[in-house]
# Entry
Amino acid sequence: MAKPKSREATISLTDATSPAVTSALRTLSTEASGVEALAAALQSDLGPAFTRAIDTIREAKGRVIVTGLGKSGHIGRKIAATFASTGTPSFFVHAAEASHGDLGMITADDVILAISWSGEQPEMKNLITYAKRFRIALIAMTADGESTLGTAADIALTLPRAREACPHNLAPTTSSLMQLALGDALAIALLEGRGFTSVDFSVLHPGGKLGAMLKYVRDLMHAGPAIPLKPLGTRMSDALVEMSSKGFGCVGIVDAEGRIAGIVTDGDLRRHMRPDLMTALVDEVMTKSPKTIGPNLLASEALEILNSSKITALIVADARKPIGIVHLHDLLRAGVA
# Structure
């Protein structure tokens, strides 16, 4: 029977000096250098072209049509998706398929963002001709501003030359990361320029954990008879019955006008434990002016408040009047955490 691997052998596989880790660190360092060169270029010659590209996209009546092929095409698909999810209508058209009918997807109101590291891919020729014929704004993202694509474009986003992480300087690695980073920079600049908020974001991301985090407290809270409430002057025995029957581990205390005046929690019970606790009034035991949240708060923000305050439930109030309650378990069931 084969002997089990020793602990020392297992550790050596993840040792920071292993060839695999050394290779990974070299790759990350090389790619980081490319992003640093891109940042430096934005502070120099690339900056004005970037600003013109933002203005052109913002002023367009149509969409951003991202195109490319090969690795640039894969990056283009992601950039188009990022644009669309952050409020800039966009979709991807494969540069080769464009010549076989997909040019019909592009209208005169659109802006084309063509991605090609060399700027000399022959598949781009018909797309360039189409853009010129119908006077469609063409933005090039290329490493060669003097290339066919770069000179044909209305705006050339010329990326700085950088060594690929591939030891042969061949496989698109650093270059792909730089294209992706510049695409993200365009998307975020457009997002910030139009004041795109988390509320806008929630409209475009209703699914998955992200969608859950962008739900509102009003979508998850318990309302009406489910809210554990008792008025000031209530005996603790009655408050405890209310707390136990509603199952939130707390009971809100309201004044004569129905405004939240305090809250009694399990912690309050422990802190005030004494023989006559059940005959005492809630006024003596409650935590005054408790933390509340509004119904229009995002669920993710409610979760942050619960975690930072080290509590499990929050009264939802409007003008200090309780209209609901949300529990940590509600957020967990909804997929927020």
About this structure: The two ends are 45 Å apart (CA to CA). The CA atoms of residues 221 and 326 lie 5 Å apart. Confidence is low (pLDDT under 50) at residues 6-11.
